[in-house]
Amino acid sequence: MSGLYLPHVRDLWVRPALAALPPALNTLSRMQGVLGIGNKESGYRYLVQTNPAETAKGFWQMETATHDDMWRNFIRYRPDLQAALLGILSGAKPEAARLVDRPIYAAAMCAVHTYRSSDALPAVNDAAGWAAFWKRNYNTEGGAGIAAEAVPYFREAMEA
Length: 160
Description:
The chain is mostly helical.
């Protein structure tokens, strides 16, 4: 399913992203979830949505509005997250465009998005749980994604 070799995505982007964030965000379940979300959202093939009317960016296909809302209403009130994300950006401004050209930042923003949810993370190796979490919290109830169809993407990420 994946366009890129998932162990490389995990080791070169997702692990460094989680390691740069506050320790509470650096868990095996979150790593599997972030890897799976990117696998489901873009298959690690697309850096921008192919529908020109949409604004999702990066392998994790985060909407510009979601990125900006996270900074405006969540990250700015959490100095530890703000410092970690600004450190990942190394002086670049926290703009949605960075989701395309800085995959570690995009993975970190995906992790923060999962952290923002009030839902508990699924257990380690729970592909169905992560597919349901993705649908409720990332794709949203109104999104076109179907949790049952996402399970293989999360399973593949967990086997990487």
